[in-house]
Amino acid sequence: MARSNARLVRFAFFALLLVLSAYILSKGSSTSYSVSNVTGSNTTSTNEKAPAPGKKITANTDGTSSAQEQAKKAGQSGEKVKAAFVTLARNSDVWEILGSIKQIEDRFNRNFAYDWVFLNDEEFSEEFKKETSRLVSGNTHYGLIPQEQWSFPSWIDTEKAAKTRERMRQEQIIYGDSISYRHMCRYESGFFFRHPLMEQFDYYWRVEPGIKIYCDIDYDIFKYMQDNDYEYSYTISLPEYPATIPTLWETTKQFLKEYPGYLHKNNFMDWISDDGGVSYNGCHFWSNFEIGKLDFWRSEAYLAYFDYLDQAGGFFYERWGDAPIHSIAVALFMDKEKIHFFDDLGYYHVPFSNCPVNEKTRLEKKCACNPNDDVTFKNYFCNNRYYKLKGLKKPEGWEKYGD
């Protein structure tokens, strides 16, 4: 009987041990599963209400990547720069802009979570908001462009403007017959930085649909701009089509004659003129990529310059682009030491590429580009002139890829 009781006690003990083991294992399994389900900061479970487009769901702290958490803490401590990406797009651009966002996020922003501002001359669709907000690690903002900033100003002779478009169509000048392209150039020249959504930011990075970033950007590029006191940066520079801007330089010279005080003492005139300002050589920073300080565009000098050009009507009577206007303004009204060329990012916008020609840079930055496609030191482009005038040393190996 005693042996029987002992066996019962041992059986009960082992049964209890098995139950406890099963419970512990089940708790461990449950914990592992729940962690794996909160690693994505933009995902929701089926019983949660989906966020409104443009709003972000804040993940639990243990589900946020260390880089995102650092970016968040930096913003809370005042270290993070007030900066955002800005994109001018239409609803029909949504699928192409997703590719650009993915490039920026994978190569840079997933580690820093900067905001993104989208601007459109029409209301953004719910589809556009949903698709773009799900990819951006920061907050997304969607703005409507006022009609008066995307239409013919009252002082423009629309019949004269129509004749220009027809002539340019016959001459096969790129975008020569486009009205919307002219509105875009005027808006990018004089208004994007005035949009209420941009008022909260000090720096911006312009991003267009269909671009590529070839290299990892493992540092905060906005903080780099701020710490080095740079106000404008670029990746590609080239000459403008002369047929699109026949009177732009003459109008600029007239402005300088009337307002000589706006010309900066340490200007970069020699980069845009081969003869001391008599003529414009067409060199401009390709503005589909630009990182800049918004205070420059908000400055008295630039606002006066834009208003002068706007009244002259060259956006519509010719086909003045925002790239030469931005570039001329930067060269004339900004200290040239505040202009910066990024040679380590790798950038593509059809049809030109910037690919680091230095092999060490390409390897360290995990660049996915062919240096033979790089245009930086090709003679047609304007960067050889930039390096010479700034007294910069060209990167090792540039000779293999230049002219």
From TrEMBL:
Sequence segments annotated as region (Disordered): 36-75
Biased composition annotated in UniProt, kind: Polar residues: 58-69
Record-level GO cellular component terms: Golgi apparatus; membrane
One function term, GO molecular function aspect: alpha-1,2-mannosyltransferase activity
Span of the signal peptide: 1-30
Pfam family, one: Glyco_transf_15
Residues at the active site: E290 (nucleophile)
Compartment list: Membrane
One Gene Ontology biological process: protein O-linked glycosylation
Family membership noted in the UniProt record: Belongs to the glycosyltransferase 15 family.
Protein's UniProt name: MNT1
